[in-house]
Amino acid sequence: MRKTEPRIPTIREVAKLAHVGLMTVSRVINNHPSVRPSTRKKVEAAIVQLGYRQNEAARLLKGQRAKMIGLIVPDLSDAFFASCAHTVQHIARAHGYMTLVVSSERDADLEFQQAELMASRKVSGLLIVTSTRRGDDRLRELQNTGLAIVAFDRPLPGSDADCVLVENRTGAEEATQHLISHGHKRIACVGYDEETYTIHERVLGYTHHMNAAGLKPNIALGLLTLDGIREWLAEALAGKNKPTAIFSLNHRTSIYLLQALAEQKLRIPQDMALVGFDDFDLASIITPPLTTVAQSPVELARRSMGLLLERIQKTHDGIESSPAKILLPVKLMVRASCGPHEERPD
Amino acid sequence: MRKTEPRIPTIREVAKLAHVGLMTVSRVINNHPSVRPSTRKKVEAAIVQLGYRQNEAARLLKGQRAKMIGLIVPDLSDAFFASCAHTVQHIARAHGYMTLVVSSERDADLEFQQAELMASRKVSGLLIVTSTRRGDDRLRELQNTGLAIVAFDRPLPGSDADCVLVENRTGAEEATQHLISHGHKRIACVGYDEETYTIHERVLGYTHHMNAAGLKPNIALGLLTLDGIREWLAEALAGKNKPTAIFSLNHRTSIYLLQALAEQKLRIPQDMALVGFDDFDLASIITPPLTTVAQSPVELARRSMGLLLERIQKTHDGIESSPAKILLPVKLMVRASCGPHEERPD
DNA sequence: TATCCAACGTCTAACGTTATCAAGCTCGCA
DNA sequence: TGCGAGCTTGATAACGTTAGACGTTGGATA
Q1: Does nucleic acid strand C have an atom less than 7 angstroms from the CB of A41?
Q2: Model pTM greater than 0.85?
Q3: Are residues B172 and B282 in the same domain?
Q4: What is the CATH number of the domain that holds B127?
Q5: Nearest-CA distance from B38 to chain A in Å?
Q6: CB-based contact (8 Å) between A150 and chain B?
Q7: What pLDDT score was predicted for residue B269?
């Protein structure tokens, strides 16, 4: 029973069946031009008849690249990145690629290790949401060996890789403006992980817009846990310039804030208005529905894959071209957490 | 610049540096016993000095299995499976395996295609959350070629693969009992996708417990969309035996129900009590916090990987052993969505 | 019909690894 | 001292594919 190995057909058997040489079969498979149509047809028939499939290992050994693309994200259990992974995979499959997904656990070293591992497996391309903030020549070296790399969500510092980013800054400005237009003047900006590019950009957008409106920015970063948020909130409420609105820098912070606000019996939006960056499944369902700045993981992944497939083609053909940059828009999802549109007394 | 190929060292160069034959190096790498310690040391030093790493492609070509494990889930963008994937990957990495994650899009044929693709890439093991309900010999054939397979979350019909399941039935019984103990008699059971094993089991648990308590089951399945839920709810409320409590069969349904109930201005738990199968991030944060039956994706993945690694070892050593079955407990997370514990009049 | 050209097909040699087999070495015992 | 026995070690031949060198064929032209 164990010895039922059904003999996977090789190119050799195809050649025998089609009465041609090995290389003819190889050329048919690789769409080489110089094969007579009649011969091609014979070979193709033999391929179908035997159910032949190329042996990747042998191709790899000959120096070809694998029909795989690698995807590195900071955290696969994050719904946003999971959604990206799903889309990437879907598109990759449609183009005959398998996807090697790994989570870098937000660790720059692990991220590079994984990238190198993928490179050593000869993936055709690499899609990466980096966790490095400092430039890293090591990835560049991989690029120089003919690996196509596209960064998305965050740019690869000091790299000339293609990248697809989101209008983080504009989104933050819109969120801030939204709160201002509801009459708020003391708007706090809360989040963690100031090292992350996206967060950094959002803070910049907030700060810029607050200053432009003549308001004083009030930024609290590094609040990683629910406890951190609780503490900050208690402190903020005790101060004399307590905020009337909060701009939350990301999904997780929004959730913690919701909990902390509920614990303090603060009503949204009456006692505290809230806008959060990142939309999430339940944002429209909770009470009150949360106004968010939505970005589309699907679109992000879609455009990134588009760029990657192009880049793989170019790299394959030995064409060098300047890196592409795509900037995707965000959308303010106005819900109830800032209340109806009205002026509010100081 | 493009020609900077830094010559990846081969086993041959290691051999030359260590002044030994090729095979000695190969034996050192594969932990063959018959290598003199002094020789081993020499070779290991050379390996470190050159930064040698095995070439997977060549190993594969020689018929070895890849240091990869495959994971097939119905939907990678589902938080539950994303979390599983994350854990699987983490453990796999710790054991030197990369993970090939794919989503089967809940399609049995695609699922098998992906499995075969992975098999042809010679993965060492396959972890699979199946979307088939009917027996499928094809996976069995893969097993017979020496591929270790472990099913989790759902059993592989007609297969003798190891599997790790969750106490779906018991969980549903506990949820039902919880509602009954709050005095509810008219308890509806709502969800979709009756074809799915887990849902089926939960319905069984609910039905069994309702019957045992002398209550009449009220089951609504096939409600895939928010609209479907809305419609069902309106109808249920219009009937004369309108339910006072709902047992939601999964995460998504719970969310839709929350929205539909809010639209109908029904208060939870006063007008309608609710228990949902599957815990989720915001369950404890929304108002009121939702009572759920929690299962742990992390534990599920952990145990499955444990089984898989064992099975890979056994398969490698040619040991056959009867399939293992693990049943994981669930936990009723009592929150506020069923109200305080009290009897309720009919 | 002979010659040349173009188009096409085949052969050979790798790619890096491991299984098999054969040979060398050391050690203990007669 | 000599000689198996057992432990190490090394040479060789695959694994399936592709690049490149090398033949072979057919037709067109003089």
Answers
A1: no
A2: yes
A3: yes
A4: 3.40.50.2300
A5: 30
A6: no
A7: 87
